[in-house]
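[agent] plan:
  1. take the single chain provided in the ticket
  2. run structure prediction with default settings
  3. attach structure tokens to the ticket
  4. add a short note for the reviewer (M.T.)
[agent] executing step 1
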Amino acid sequence: VQLQASGGGLVQPGGFLRLSCAASGSIARINVMGWYRQAPGKQREFVATILSSSTTMYADSVKGRFTISRDNAKNMVYLQMDSLKPEDAAVYYCTLSFGGNTYWGQGTLVTVSS
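[agent] step 2 finished; step 3 output follows
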């Protein structure tokens, strides 16, 4: 299984970005896709997850500003990030979990700065 994240970049505070992640390989139909992030000097933290049933869960810090979605036919997961804050700056990693395993993408850098 491989995950390829994209869409990171530099954005001003209050701006928006949309991250995408493509999963490939032998993937179970029932799975969980998600996003985590790691800021410099900080531990990796949970951002959001979405089940194959489209049930979602968000970290309190992004609730109301970020939206996770997926396209099961394409094995894609997305993260729409609105009203970005400087504290959202981090490397964002997509994940795919099934069968007791979690697979990680390589990360995409999000910088929030004026």
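[agent] step 4 note for reviewer: The chain has a mean pLDDT of 96.
[agent] ticket updated
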